[in-house]
Write a structure and sequence with these properties.
Strand content: 5-15%
Order of helices and strands: HEEHEHEHEHHEHEHEHEH
Shape: globular
Number of strands: 9
Helix content: 40-55%
Distance between the termini: 91 Å
Largest sheet: 5 strands, mixed
């Protein structure tokens, strides 16, 4: 009986020691990721491919970066396809990923509300803001009067400026591959120029009086400005996606006055309120547009170019219905 008791005590002690090891391991991960310690540059190389690692805040920027980087850099996005990026809650694994990068890329203009806290936690990693130097369009709603609309990438013309900044930044961190980055950047800008012309031609099919784009978020200001459209929405930015009775009533009134046949919502937020607006206004709900996030690879918007083509075709189909 004594030997059996000793065995039981031994097993219990072993179990407790294993639990304590797991506890201290978890504690050490949280402590390290929370202390903002500088990261050794040698850890910022992808060990499998021996490439510098570059991290972006969301998938659209990752796609732009991949088109410039080609095979020379490892590009990773913090947020996944479908994520809402304005008020994203980053995780310990996000912090660990960023702490191993040579560069972190953000959009700026107040888009990523979590960015400063995120980079402070990730440690001494260089950052760039792609919207720096771009003259932003302002949010029109009174509460936000004068604040910049952050969705500048929704204009292919502005996206070309993003590409220029990516080229110069990648050359700084990897000067040996300068010719590759410049060549890739120039080729991608040609695609963006062609896309700009294509979108202008496609949107010109909408009768002038019907060129009113109604969405959940005011994320299409740059696209509307480029191609001669009006914009209306339920809320100005997803960071405050509260649907008030006043906002809903005003949007319903606008839709009726302008006889808008079809309205839309963004893929990264709930469309339920907008579907109710459609019912109340007599408009058709035309589906989801992509702005803050690409779709998964088998979806309609797995790249930036396809994102804009998908959006514009959906808009044209909806606004020319019954013409």
């Amino acid at each position: 009986m004594l030997s059996v008791s000793l065995i039981i005590i031994y097993v219990e002690i072993s179990y407790l020691m294993k639990r304590m090891k797991l506890f201290f391991l978890a504690f050490s991960v949280v402590f390290v990721t929370g202390c903002s310690l500088p990261v050794n540059n040698s850890k910022r190389i992808n060990p499998e491919k021996n490439k510098p690692v570059v991290v972006t805040t969301f998938t659209v920027l990752a796609d732009l970066a991949k088109n410039v980087a080609g095979e020379k850099l490892t590009i990773q996005s913090i947020t996944k396809p479908g994520a809402e990026i304005h008020s994203y809650q980053f995780t310990p694994s996000d912090v660990i990923k960023a702490s191993k990068a040579q560069l972190i890329i953000e959009n700026g203009l107040g888009l990523e509300l979590w960015f400063k806290k995120f980079t402070a936690t990730a440690g001494n990693v260089p950052t760039i803001t792609l919207s720096d130097g771009i003259k932003p369009l302002a949010i029109e709603e009174d509460k936000y009067k004068g604040k910049p609309n952050p969705h500048a990438w929704m204009s292919p013309q502005k996206a070309m400026l993003y590409v220029d900044k990516l080229v110069e930044t990648f050359i700084e961190i990897d000067p040996l591959n300068e010719s590759t980055y410049r060549s890739n950047g120039n080729n991608y800008k040609k695609e963006l120029m062609n896309l700009d012309n294509e979108l202008r031609l496609t949107l010109s099919k909408i009768p002038l009086k019907k060129r009113v784009l109604v969405s959940c978020e005011g994320a299409f200001t740059y696209l509307a400005n480029d191609y001669g459209m009006q914009e209306a929405y339920l809320w100005p930015v997803n960071a405050e996606s509260q649907v008030t009775p006043k906002r809903m009533a005003n949007l319903i009134k606008t839709i009726k006055e302008k006889e808008v046949p079809t309205i839309f919502c963004e893929s990264s937020v709930s469309s339920e309120a907008q579907k109710q607006v459609a019912i109340e206004s007599g408009a058709t709900f035309g589906g989801n547009l992509y702005v803050d996030s690409l779709s998964k690879s088998d979806g309609p918007a797995p790249t930036y170019l396809k994102l804009l083509r998908h959006n514009v075709q959906l808009i044209v189909n909806g606004l020319t219905s019954g013409s």
